[in-house]
Write a structure and sequence with these properties.
The chain has helices spanning about 5-20, 25-35, 40-55, 65-70, 75-90, 105-110, 115-120, 125-145, 155-165, 180-185, 200-215; strands spanning about 100, 175. With about 220 residues, the protein is an all-alpha fold. It has two domains: about 5-70; about 75-215, no CATH class.
Length: about 220
């Protein structure tokens, strides 16, 4: 929303408050607006509509967090959805390829658990623990509403080898919504957070290939 939406947002929030026999101050309206201003007005209106119809929680005046949950789901839902993308990419694309996901938090969470190439070295026994660590990190950033730095591209084994040999990099694979993935690439930092040396790759090269083959 923009400041131009404030007046109609205030009218809508006041009307909703009236349903619950609540009076709402101008300061409170500003708090609600600032908490939700990153969302489109139409999405906010739909969230209000769904909330007041909800038979489980609709008897209480909604807080900003209730409405945001209506629009985005819980952080656990988001983390599980993000991990599903990562899991599918490892199985279908593999860590030999460089990739760009459509969610910057995925890039940062992968870096925090050891990096894209490192994922390809994990065994099936380790995989559930990798999933848990990724989801916990992702939820942490999401709950704190942080926008951490992240690598614009998660570099795969092939490009690490090409860089070491002075060869041209390959075109990264776009994972998820291609337009969003391009925006993720544009918003990434130039300094790699995911530090993987070619020596580390070569020592794991054979093992990573076998593990990815088995997991696929």
């Amino acid at each position: 929303m923009t400041q131009n939406d404030f007046e109609k947002f205030a009218e809508m929030l006041s009307a909703v408050a009236g349903l619950y026999s609540k009076e709402i101050s101008e300061m409170t309206i500003s708090i609600y607006f600032n908490a939700m201003k990153e969302y489109d007005f139409s999405a906010v209106r739909q969230a209000f509509d769904r909330y007041v119809k909800n038979t489980d929680t609709g008897q209480f005046m909604p807080k900003p967090a209730d409405l945001i949950r209506m629009m985005t789901g819980t952080s656990l839902d988001s983390a599980m959805e993000a991990w599903a993308k990562v899991d599918k990419a490892v199985r279908q694309v593999g860590t030999y390829a460089s990739v760009i996901f459509d969610d910057p938090l995925i890039h940062r969470a992968i870096a925090d658990i050891g990096g894209w190439v490192n994922l390809g070295t994990k065994t099936d026994d380790e995989w559930p623990f990798v999933a848990r660590d990724f989801q916990n990190i992702y939820k942490g950033y999401s709950n704190r509403r942080e926008n951490p730095e992240y690598d614009p591209v998660l570099t795969g084994i092939s490009d690490l080898h090409n860089c070491a040999e002075g060869l041209k990099k390959t075109e990264p694979k776009l994972i998820g919504d291609s337009e969003k993935a391009r925006k993720v690439m544009q918003g990434g930092t130039s300094t790699r957070l995911e530090v993987t040396t070619i020596q580390q790759v070569l020592t794991k090269f054979t093992g990573a290939a076998q593990i990815e083959t088995n997991r696929a």
